[in-house]
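Work Package 3 (structural annotation) set out to generate three-dimensional models for the target panel prioritized at the project kickoff. During this period the team completed the workflow that converts sequence records into discrete structure tokens, so that structures can be stored uniformly alongside our sequence database. As a representative example, we reproduce one entry of 294 residues exactly as it appears in the project archive.
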Amino acid sequence: MPRRILTLLLCAPVLFWMARQNAAAQPTVVEDSVFSPSLHRFTHFRVCLPFTVNGDRVEAPARQLPPRYPAILVLHGFDGNYRNWTDIASIQKFAARDSIVIVTPDGENSWYVNAPGDSSAGFEDCFTRDLVPYVEGKYPIDAKHLGIAGLSMGGYGALVLGLRHPDLFCFVGAMSASPDVPLGIPDLERKGRGGMRASVEHAFGADTSSWAGFAPERIVRTIDTASAPYLYLANGIQDEFAARLLFYRSFADVVRGRGMRYEYHETPGRHSWEYWTREIDPLLRRFRELTPLH
């Protein structure tokens, strides 16, 4: 393990004194892992910190208490991994710009739910019971201002985790998600996405009669709107899954009908990293506007 990362992990209580808040600050990307009882193994993730770590120390004013930063989990898509957002989209630059902590976990192809009948695939519990408490305890995170966002499968995961756990997440961002998942997966199967169908059956069970409970629209219809998180919805107009725009519009109608706080964006773009790299910028700006620094 590189020396600067090892030192950061071993000396966290000292290293997380407040960094200088200025334009010259550079973000730090930390490679980390936590043992998850929900998965029976370690799970890996990256943490993007909004300050510079130089060798053994954080550049910070003397005698100043560390702040608690708003933090957001940003989820990858199908066949992706926890390195995608930093390696492809350089999302770490937004940590310094917006003074936020960004966590990029690994959801594998789980759809971010607990797979029935598989005790080693409890991904919803992994995120909400194992990962979130760990990062809140180790990093300078304001637990009252925690968000979750993602692309495609990760956008679906953000919707489901955020709506099912409004006690944890105050903000949900979904880009190029599929609000019809898991109910609409048979249609994707007919378009040749066989591996996706297999992953859905593992995640939600082979009995499709139980899938409706994990459809975001169904969850929105029953959620307590007083405690519901803020929803940020975005989709590319040229998305290859043409029906997704219709699903998004229908979902936004249900959200609006329930009086929830939300915004919905249709912008040029395909189901691609070019689109997600561009659109994560305004999403994170909006998250920062809604979460004051403490």
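The longest strand covers residues 141-151.
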